[in-house]
Specification:
The chain has 8 helices and 4 strands; from the N terminus they run αααααββαββαα. The chain is an alpha+beta fold and about 200 residues long. The chain has 2 domains: about 30 residues; about 140 residues, no CATH class. Strands 1-2-3-4 form a 4-stranded mixed beta sheet. The radius of gyration is 40 Å and the shape is globular. About 20% of the residues are buried.
Amino acid sequence: MKEKTYQNMKTLAIVGVVTVVALAGILYLTTDNGIRNQVPIATTEEPTVTDPTEAAAPTTTQEGVTTQAQALFDARVDTINNTDAVAKLLETINLRENIAVYTSSVLPNQTPKTLKITFSKVVNEADRITFNANVQKYAIQILALIADAQQVKWIYTVQTNTGQTIRASGVTSVSDSNPLLKENIKQYGASPADVQKLLNVQMGL
């Protein structure tokens, strides 16, 4: 009887050991499969946000010269009497978009040699100073890029505070521009790099 009981206990012990081993094996397989199933989650990079000012920035060619400066240099004019070339330069400067619709004429018999530009824009009295400063910026470019031009004159309409409209004018010349630029304005039309230098000065760079 005792021998039978001993055998039963031995059998139970063996079964217990086998069960423990089996459970350990199952636990290992479960843990191993868990590790194997941990596929790295691909991280999605934040989309690159382009700064609008960078997107609008002019394309730069060799030696830091922008395509704008190169185009202006290519449109330079040897003499103010070449009216077709002058018209092309004004289109390259894009006065129509930057200022307003305009007509232009050369005053060949006037001294100093003058380019006259008449704008269709009606400017409020309060905006008059800003308007003239903006036109002067492009007038300086014109003087730099027309070799013998000595003066740019512009005509426009002002609406006064009382509601009246009057004709007004502005003018800038080589002698006016040189002190502003601290150099001879004509030097800024000598090369694409010089035109770029003028653009940089006007942008405050």
